[in-house]
């Protein structure tokens, strides 16, 4: 069944996979993919791209497992995609029952190491803390992945890059879009996947009732060679991790920054002194020798929901505009499942209109 003409607003990993799913499941539909910049140049470009089966709620665990299967199938079909398996060790005071409610199949290490090797240094395992192996981890160059997937979609999708949406007006007959180029479009449905750009005038009023907020995300780079044999280390109790980015030749340390309500058009201007101080304080509890080497990195932001679960919502009474996002910093990890739910919402609204 055709969904008519669907405009997907936002060319990050979520929007890209929404467009891809529509093309695959509803090939008679006409699909537009619009982005204010080049595809993959927002949160996707700054993403650490770490994926592993994890979720603090049953729904997010289910979504994570779905995405795991999607990426495994994608790698099998297209071995050249920039997705890289990585071993993962997890450090936590939590017991098996607690961790099993969050991670898929954690296995406690019997040798009880006092330290782990990462980035050419020791990462201490504090007293009363255990080390667990977590299977199924991988990381991606998310920007390159988006670009590769969109290049395949171009023969079947009208990709509009560098085109800002300035108006979004649903009515009983469809949705009217105004573009920064001065063009006006009439489409049947819209999937809004704006990443952290929740406050764009075209949709800010419709998105505001969702209660999503934008939080700053910071990761520090450690200039030490990384290769495919290195393992990621998750500091579960800190909500932080060390990741060997072999394709870039260095390590990344991600910690939880608590700067809220930031502007995505202003936040990505570089590290601030307090970013480095917070990262070093966190990492220094486990690996003091690495903390002092955190001097460079990346800064951006993402949209977070109040429930800490991705938001899939209809934004108008007829269900012609669907919001897909607020993935809480897990856009890459959950994008396949978010895309599947978004297309299902559109499909349901189409079927409802035919009754």
Automatic annotation (TrEMBL):
Transmembrane segments: none annotated. It holds the Pfam family DAO. Its cofactor is FAD. Keywords: Flavoprotein, Oxidoreductase. Residues 6-344 form the FAD dependent oxidoreductase domain. One of its GO terms (molecular function) is oxidoreductase activity. Belongs to the DadA oxidoreductase family. This is FAD-dependent oxidoreductase. It comes from Streptomyces noursei (Streptomyces albulus).
